[in-house]
Design goal:
The structure is a single chain. The chain is an all-alpha fold and 266 residues long. The chain has one domain. It contains 10 helices and no strands. The protein is globular. The two termini are 17 Å apart.
């Protein structure tokens, strides 16, 4: 497991900094390709949901059963799964609704004639909201990659896709407020640093206690976090970007790709 440490940190870093992709789309594209984003959000949700139910919960049960026995392992897997849901739901609830980064942002959302001070404040608050919201996502990506590099890569890609709208949400108002593409890009890019920070904090807090029980709890709670993100954020955002059929097609495609990759790599 220790051998996967650098890979886990690297994947978490790449996933977090993908907000820069959204920022680049917002700053250099004349229009937002909503159909592409709808499919991409659905794809990301499909990967997360499939991995959570088909891999993470099974691995969590196996780990926890080593410590609590077969029946106890199944029980604590369920507890940890819903604990992950509660934690991410509480964090999501604490964010002011207008500042919540998970909405269908686009290049056309804001016009240059809007008040610069208001736009700058909106962009900065959104960046802060993303930093808070993505902190547990960094821990989730790191924990999954530490347990299984193959799963970690898949989850990191899914998280990276889901971070694209966040980059748009930060960079558009800051660009219109300041007129600086460079400043908008770097603030958006930096907002993703909370994910690798979450990985570092999680590792420092838990590495001394790492064992089957702790890893099982982490994997089950990661599954809860990802299922909540998929159902509460990714799919609704995908449906806002375009017709619901594209989101569902992306969802099924994400599940199929994940299933095929697991069959080929395992």
């Amino acid at each position: 497991m220790t051998d996967n440490l650098l890979l886990a940190f690297g994947l978490t870093l790449l996933a977090g900094l993908s907000t820069g992709i959204g920022s680049a789309i917002a700053l250099f594209a004349k229009r937002t390709n909503t159909r592409f984003l709808a499919v991409a959000m659905g794809l990301s949700a499909g990967v997360m949901i499939y991995v959570s139910f088909m891999e993470l919960l099974g691995q969590a049960t196996a780990q926890l059963s080593q410590h609590y026995g077969e029946r106890g392992g199944a029980f604590w897997t369920v507890v940890a799964f819903f604990t992950g849901i509660v934690v991410i739901a509480v964090i999501d609830r604490m964010l002011p609704e207008p500042k919540n980064p998970h909405h269908a942002g686009s290049v056309e959302d804001l016009a240059p004639e809007n008040r610069p001070n208001k736009l700058l404040r909106m962009g900065l608050f959104t960046a802060l909201a993303i930093a808070i919201h993505n902190f547990p996502e960094g821990m989730a990506t790191f924990a999954a990659a530490l347990a299984d590099p193959t799963l970690g890569i898949s989850i990191a890609v899914a998280i990276a896709i889901h971070n694209i709208p966040e980059g748009i949400a930060v960079s558009v108002p800051i660009f219109y407020a300041t007129g600086s593409r460079k400043q908008a890009f770097w603030l958006s890019f930096a907002s993703g640093l909370s994910e690798p920070l979450g990985a570092v904090v999680g590792y420092l807090l838990m590495h001394r206690f790492m064992g089957p029980a702790v890893m099982g709890w982490l994997l089950a709670s990661v599954a809860g976090v990802m299922v909540f993100i998929s159902l509460d954020e990714l799919l609704p955002t995908a449906r806002e970007y375009d017709e619901g059929h594209l989101a569902i097609y992306g969802l099924v495609a994400g599940m199929a790709v994940m299933a095929a990759s697991l069959l080929l790599l395992n």
